[in-house]
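Below is how a single chain appears once it has passed through the pipeline. First comes the sequence as given, then the structure the pipeline wrote out for it. We keep one example in the README because the format questions we get most often are answered faster by looking than by reading.
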Amino acid sequence: MKVLIILGGQVFSGAEITTLRFAAALPDSWEIEILAHSATCERVAKFGLPAHPWDNESANGDTLLRASHFINEPCHSAQPARKRLDELIHKFRPNAVLACMFPVAMLSLPILQKRNVPLFVHHQLMYKDMPEHPITEPVRRVANYAKCIIAASLAVNEPLKRAKILNTEVITAGLPTNYGQEKNISNNKTIRILSIATWGPQKGLKTLLEADRMLRTENLDYVLTIAGPLNTYSQEYETSMRKLAHPDVSFIGNQPDPRPCYQNADILIIPSSDPDPYPTVTLEGMAHALAVIATDCGGLSEQVINGETGLLVPPNNSLKMAGAIRQLSSDVLETLAMGTAGKKRTLKIANIKHQAAQLGQLMCASGC
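Resulting structure:
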């Protein structure tokens, strides 16, 4: 079996990581090739997979692969990228293509139709306004051709069902075997809180920082570390977040390998203000035995068992967020128990070999 996997833009997000983890866990006998933005090819290679770059000048993933560019066809700016894809398909002759998210599939569709190559779409975005959203019709065009839409969670799949797109299968993200490392135990009783993301307004950092400021007068024994880039959205956003943050909040920037961050934390906070599809950071944190505080929306509601592996709070509610931080930072035993339960849960729901086998079975059953 030959599979070509197509990734999108310059930012190496959780979506790309999840797709590549699937690819790396497919049978050793399968031939896998990756088409990715030149800015991410080096990171793709760390998964042990061969990566081919989009053309650096004419196929800039940061502008090409946004869904808005494909709502109104024809997308003339996509032609150089499609030419590159056509060349690679002609050379590699894959049995199937797996596109990481719908914008990439939209870009690829004319070439795949011309070459009659079966398409699978790894859908990891929350198009929560479907079927009213203008993206619905382009998504339908892709779905009508695709063998299967692989939805990252039940929350991701629900809008597709509302739009009567039914050739879907839910396969959640997984982690490599033994991903979670032993946690570094602190010598004091200070609770170490971590929040990590590619930050933007939809990620809810404002809510977390407001909650943290509320708690600073209570002399709770915790430290808060914010990991991940702040300037991906805009410089103005980064400036406003740093201004809002209490002086004791630690910003440590982008972390290509986040595992040391998890090892040196006790609680992971995911404060998303918009529904998050199925964030991999939740699984990664739980695999390191971190208790999780997350907003009760999207795939987060599927990942975290409230009161058992962590606490769920309403989105955009700094008061409730502060209450959850207060509860866990004041009770070390409860935090440890939730972390232990979360680690057990990841072993049950995040086995990448099992999920990759599901993907492989889908492709084989589709006659690829």
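The chain has two domains: 2-174+351-365, 191-349.

See the next section for the split statistics.
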